[in-house]
């Protein structure tokens, strides 16, 4: 019995690792290239996440998921390729148009739809304004938090962090995630020479990412689904994989306004 439980616990490890490798290669190439290549990848990812969100929260009647996805791609691309202030309000359109279609979870859909748009904008801003190093650092913090949290939670178990919303998340995994993020921050400060603020900012950004994971879990629980979609083997949908990045990307820009720690306008 114990062997079966242990086997089931790690059953999704191989597809998770294989999918993660493919995403790492594609994402790494786009990040390295920057410019239009990275922006195009971000637009595609945000459009697919908008589609997943619309599908999970749809009500009876007309399914506007594809319309919302196309609109999300259009307004985000408009803001990325023609970055002028008066285009920013258009980022609200996917959330607003989505409320016109039958929707069973309007309170979850509208703010999360806007969050997806803001995340896309934040990621491209990080790459273009602060350089490749800042974006790689953000991804390292999120990945370290997620990976250490995954293995610590599966290995150590223990009390649940928020069982009503995310029954698999444990305090041991949560704390391990903070420690992983702290290690990334310490490396950037002690080795790469970044400002000291990066040390305390890293765990806060990891915590924001963990809240993003919990928020998406709450939406899935209310929708009665296990995964946002089945686009990524072993991970479910893009929202399942990038939910933490939604919150973390916005948090890193906000924290950097109060105590700057990101590299200054270095083009990678």
From TrEMBL:
EC number: 2.7.7.41
Metabolic or biological pathway: Phospholipid metabolism; CDP-diacylglycerol biosynthesis; CDP-diacylglycerol from sn-glycerol 3-phosphate: step 3/3; Lipid metabolism
Lipid bilayer topology: Multi-pass membrane protein
Transmembrane segments: 20-49, 61-78, 106-126, 132-152, 173-192, 244-266
Predominant location category: membrane
Signal peptide as annotated in the record: none
Location(s), subcellular: Cell membrane
GO molecular function, one term: nucleotidyltransferase activity
Presence of the UniProt keyword Lipid metabolism in the record: yes
Catalysed reaction, written as an equation: a 1,2-diacyl-sn-glycero-3-phosphate + CTP + H(+) = a CDP-1,2-diacyl-sn-glycerol + diphosphate
Family, as annotated: Belongs to the CDS family.
Protein name listed in UniProt: Phosphatidate cytidylyltransferase
